[in-house]
Amino acid sequence: MAGETVPVPRLLARTHAIVARSGIRAATVEPQSPASAAGLRDGDVIVSLDEWPTAGVDDLHRLLDEDRIGRPAQLTVLRAMELKRLVVVPREAPKG
């Protein structure tokens, strides 16, 4: 998945009790990837992983350590005006 840091609109943050002021917009979700299998779509904004805020790409990288590989994790995303909870099972990135 390729993503970029974007602000979370204040109204949505208040409505859905989102702590982070920013999130990660999924720019490209690769087919056959864990993100795709979880139901993540291009344009979704990731705001947390297992209830840990993801204000930017660095936060997501830090949270996706080797201990999470193969273990289900809850991904919370904004899709348009709705808050969605998806289950993703991270896997090791292919070499190369």
Topology:
Elements: E1 2-7, H1 10-16, E2 22-28, H2 34-38, E3 45-49, E4 52-53, H3 57-63, E5 73-79, E6 82-88
Antiparallel strand pairs: 1-2, 2-3, 3-4, 3-5, 5-6
Describe the structure.
Helix content is about 20%, strand content about 35%. Strands 1, 2, 3, 4, 5 and 6 form a 6-stranded antiparallel beta sheet that branches. The longest helix is centred in the N-terminal third of the chain and has 7 residues, at about 10-15. The two termini are about 15 Å apart. It has helices at about 10-15, 35-40, 55-65, and strands at about 1-5, 20-30, 45-50, 50-55, 75-80, 80-90. The protein is globular. A hairpin with a 2-residue loop joins strand 3 (about 45-50) and strand 4. It has a single domain (about 1-90), classed as PDZ domain (Pdz3 Domain, Roll), CATH 2.30.42.10. It is built from 3 helices and 6 strands. The model has no long low-confidence stretch (mean pLDDT about 90). It has about 100 residues and is α+β, with helices and mostly antiparallel strands.
